[in-house]
Amino acid sequence: MVKAIPFEPGDKARKHPDCCLYLSKSLVDAVWEDLPPEPKITLSIGSGSGLLEAILTAPGNKCIECVELETLREIDKYIAEKAMHYVSGMQSLCERAGHADAWLFVYPRDPALVSRYIERFGNGSVGKIFWLGPRQDWDDLVVKLAEQNHAAFHSPYQRHAVVGWEVYGVIEKRKDLLHLNRLIESL
């Protein structure tokens, strides 16, 4: 059974026991504004309890599906089972990512997970990748992407400071490649 959302983000960033990220109204508004509208799909990879995703979808006009480890199935409290996908382990990737328009990573256990998803599914529908987590991991990810020369994805930028050590960053696919992928899919 899905729980009602017990948390209303305020002006000041604060913690909730069901979310590892500090939440504020300005952060939620920034992420909500960036998410693609329905019927496009955002895949939240490592959704945990689903609290952030439930807050983001509550106003409507956004479709978020979630991925979590099979062994952590019981921690989901706020997302309907039909919107959940499960993987067998931390090295496993969710095939649904190949069809999602955006990916959302919140405190990934391994920042290299983003690179693995790009390597496997980066040529698919995904146009934007959203990162919420530790600033140091974001900085490491930006360096790693530059070293791996992911030509399809460019210009990682910090969109919003959450608290001193947390950041909201965005990585975008080059527009020409995004249009080419959509043209190929329509054939």
Task: Write a structural description.
This protein has 187 residues and is of the alpha/beta class. The chain has one domain (21-186): Rossmann fold (3-Layer(aba) Sandwich). The protein contains five helices and nine strands. The chain has helices at 25-34, 51-57, 112-121, 135-148, 175-186, and strands at residues 14-16, 19-23, 41-45, 63-69, 84-87, 102-106, 128-134, 153-163, 166-173. It is globular. The chain starts with 13 loop residues before the first strand and ends with a helix.
Quick tags:
single chain; 187 residues; alpha/beta; Rossmann fold; two-stranded antiparallel ribbon; 5 helices; 28% helix; globular
Low-confidence parts lasting 5 or more residues at pLDDT below 50? none
Rounded mean pLDDT score: 85
**Cα-to-Cα separation, first versus last residue:** 40 Å
What is the CATH architecture term?
Answer: 3-Layer(aba) Sandwich
Helices and strands in order:
Layout: E1 14-16, E2 19-23, H1 25-34, E3 41-45, H2 51-57, E4 63-69, E5 84-87, E6 102-106, H3 112-121, E7 128-134, H4 135-148, E8 153-163, E9 166-173, H5 175-186
Parallel strand pairs: 3-4, 3-6, 4-5, 6-7
Antiparallel strand pairs: 1-2, 7-9, 8-9
